[in-house]
Amino acid sequence: MAHYITLVSVAWDSGTEYYSFQGVSLPSQHYNDRLISISPITREIPYPAGQYRISGGSIELDNTDNYFGALKYAYAFRNRVVTISIVDADTDSTLYTLWTASIKSWSIRGYALRLDLRDDSMSRLGGKLSGIIFDKTNFPNIPSDSERKFVPYAFGELSADGYSSKGLVPLKLVTTSNPFTYVIAYNRIYTIARVYVYGVLKTLNVDYTVTTDVIGGITYDTVHFTTDQRDSQRPTETEVTADIQGYDNSTIQLNPVVQVRLLLIFFGFENAVSFPASIAMTIDAHNKCYNREMDGVFYVDDNEMTGLDILDKYAESFNWSPFRAKGGQLVIYQYDIIDEIDAVSQADLSNSDDVVAQSLHIEGLSDPIGRLQANYLFNWIPEKRYFEFQPRPADEAAESEIVTPNNDNINLWCVNYVSTAETVRRTHRYLMSEGVYFVKFDLPFEHYDLELNDWVSLTANQGIGTVGFAAKKMRVIALTLLLNPLEMRIAAKCVALPPVSMQDFSSAELSIDAKRLPVVADNSALSSWPDESEYDHDLSQSTSANMPKYRTASGPDGGPCVEFDGGDYMTQSSAPSIQPAWAGFFAVFKCTATGTQTIVSVCAGGAFKYGLYAVGTSLRFTIDDKTGYAAGTIVANTWYIVSGIYSATASPTTKVYINGVVGPTTANTYSSSLSGPILSIGGEDDGSNPLIGSIVHVGLLNRQYHEVMDAERRTIEAMLSDRFGITII
Q1: How far apart are CA 314 and CA 333, in angstroms?
Q2: Secondary structure letter of residue 121 according to DSSP
């Protein structure tokens, strides 16, 4: 068994000194026996998302000889760096750094010096923003009565187009004569889309011109007027506003991960954090935002904001969990629905071999989908409008639409676009669902290399389920180090997330599941099939002769299914029309006969537009009509998981996947929308092309902004495979 020893070094102004509990000599350094105690040190990741957590702790050093009293007389103690490490004395002399902190405060009591410590990122990120101020020093010709404010930074698309406000970004007048010059932001601007004067749209090169000016050695994008636009009768209003796309003059930067990195650098925190390419989780967060088209927006003209404020606002807006790795790097992890099925790498633990006896503890999520989350979920549209106006206050008309006070709602300060908001919203709901729970346990110090955000697979005879845990995958969100000689161990806290459902995904407009139906007698007629998505596209059939049958044990795994006999079908008259769209259809079904059969479709008066249907041994997915489709092969009396994906790119295509295997890709363009579309299963809207077979699940993703990603498809298929016991490839 390894013999771990705790070591401490303090970088005093007089030189670095080294301490241990009992006195240790390593080849590189002797560690004096002044160390009395170390408090537990906790590092954690916010869940489900939120403010960066500053870790803290304390150490006590022996001061019997008043050594530190004399040292304090000569030197300052605060903000000096303390490093806590361990070494395995039985195997080698290699130090492993556990935590680096700075001295927050100190005290001498009796014969001991106490040093209170905190994560030194606080001292780096806690400072106020640096930048340029609108004043006479930086802008010599600025109006004398001008408000002294911070020259703003503007990233992303800042636009109030389509709303009651005209021009989201206020411009600042910096001259008092022709040309009357307005500065937009400190950083260069990619596009100035529209300019307004007191809310009235102005014409480029007629009413104003766009140019650049070098002021105080800095190049600014500016708007010029030949006459003074100020109205003395409206002294409290901003006269000139604009809708812009910001970052620099050649690029619009929409990715929020890149935005926050650039902001921390621009605001003088470049020495505080690093985003090396080797930090896979940071790159992963970047790619998630890029792939899901999650766009950010940032505008600040307040020099009271700190680096932590920036990080926290983005974290709360995008379901980020920022944390500091052991190596000191700032890491951004973005919780996302599609990556919670499998872990790339994990530590395999069991309560018989690894977990300290009697330390396993399981607890549920406090107040899942409570008041705060309910506001976030159900009052979304007016909130979205409200936050699109931020950071400038919304007008009274927009603010009046907010059902609850602004401070009762989740911070969406940096979110832009409805598609981004929808993805954030659904992910947040998933992360706050009833199925989430936390698992706490202690580990011996041999697991010192366990890191925040690592996956662990825990097998334990106590847990959720009839047999406890069986290789339950969970993510580490907190680690507490206990470093005193008689109790060296690690206390871990993990979050276990529930299986995903179709309705957890962005733009899920339909999710029907036979296992969610109320249990009734076998072969009972089914008049309705409730939709579990937020859109309540419940399917129904009022004619008894056309009602499918509920079967209690005929599903693929011996569970329930809904059986169609060739004359049964169900419809929903408020089906969505998707144009333009990126559609994803998912179904679990079997056919018991040949012929043209409908699994799910959207029609209007018999005009078939898009859906999944079978023709003999061919399973087809079409997005517009039956002349263009993607196809794969099926056989009768066999259960299948089928996905039909439409990609409305420059070269639109349809794909069909059968048990995870893709068939030939087909060019197929959605050309027109339906008037009064009807969603139907088991037959088209008029009962034609009926299904002879059974269905246990149908889902529809109706995208308007981006296609269903391959990772999303695989996640949904894996969820359906696990739920219904059908093997996918």
Answers
A1: 12
A2: H
Tell which of 498, 518, 544 closes a domain: 498
Does residue 608 sit in the same domain as residue 468?
A: no
Residue of 180, 153, 179, 158 lying closest to 169 (CA atoms)? 158
Evaluate whether 725 touches 557 at the Cβ level (below 8 Å). yes
Q: Provide the β-strand partners of residue 528.
A: 540
For 45-80, write each residue's pLDDT tens digit. 988 887 888 899 999 999 999 999 999 999 999 999
451 and 550 part of one domain: no
Strand partners, 510: 700
Asked whether the beta carbons of 438 and 363 are under 8 A apart, the reply is yes
| Domain housing 652 | 503-724
Work out the number of other CB atoms within 10 angstroms of the CB of residue 661.
11
Cβ neighbours of residue 722 closer than 8 Å, sequence gap 6 or more: 499
Taking each helix axis as running N to C, give the angle between helix 256-264 and helix 307-318, from 0 to 180 degrees, rounded to the nearest 10.
170
How far is it, in rounded angstroms, from Cα 598 to Cα 610?
Answer: 11
Q: 276 in helix, strand or coil? A: coil
Query: Does residue 275 sit within a domain?
Result: no
Distance between CA atoms of residues 706 and 261, nearest Å: 25
Q: Write the single-letter amino acid at 448.
A: Y
Q: For residue 231, is pLDDT > 80?
A: yes
Cα separation, 530 vs 553, in Å, equals 20
The tokens of 589 are what? 């079904």
Q: List all residues 6 or more positions away from 398 whose beta carbon is below 8 Å from its beta carbon.
A: 163, 164, 165, 382, 385, 386, 389
Pairing of strands 630-633, 640-647: unpaired
Q: What is the pLDDT of residues 703-715, one digit of tens each?
A: 766 677 787 888 8
Q: DSSP characters for 198-228?
A: TTEE--BTTTBEEEEEEETTEEEEEEEESS-
> How many domains, in total, are found in the chain?
3
**Whether 272 contacts 324, CB under 8 Å:** no
